[in-house]
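Q: Got a minute? One more chain.
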Amino acid sequence: MDVNAYHAFAREKLGVTFNDIELLITAFTHRSYLNEHKKTVREHNERLEFLGDAVLELVTTEFLFSNYSDPEGTLTSWRSSLVRTESISNAASRYEYEPLLRLSRGEKRGSERAREQILANTYEAVLGALYLDQGYDACKRFITESLLGTFDEILKSGSWMDPKSHLQELAQSADGATPVYRVLEEVGPDHEKLFTVGVFVDNKLKGEGSGPSKQIAQVAAATAALKQYQ
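A: Always. Here it is, folded:
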């Protein structure tokens, strides 16, 4: 990718002119790319990701603390919903990060879930680069524009709740009943059990989920059931 593409991204998406464009290029460099270009590339984006994660958490915390008077537990749940992988990878997609990613040939053929994680990590790495090059206020502006504007929808949809709590709220509101979880199947030896759980509302099966523990399977079942209410 030509260096001019990264300059254009900085101007058009981040609203700044980078002093050290190599910082931004490194932010888009996945570890796998380094493995294939050891002679020409010296650094991948994980250190910048580490820094950007801290900046993201501080800006998000400051936003919630300044605008809402809810208790700590609620604010923590809201913050988690804003900075989770799905939320920040969606922000990276909206701001067209993907064409600038520097990945190995194998990673380019990776799963959708793997690509989502890469985009989320890159979003944080770009924040790290932006912080070093332009400072905290530039990061705050970009996070406010790219991410915090989604918070009203998160509140409206209830997606900040864990799936079981969210399902209970919706089921009680729509059906006047509380979800009940039942183990439908257990397979495998004791040390490698796989549980399949069904969640029932008013004795009607609303969703199924599987996992290595009953709790994980319950969460998967609740996530499946939520799609029926949405």
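A: The two ends are 41 Å apart (CA to CA).
Q: Perfect, thanks.
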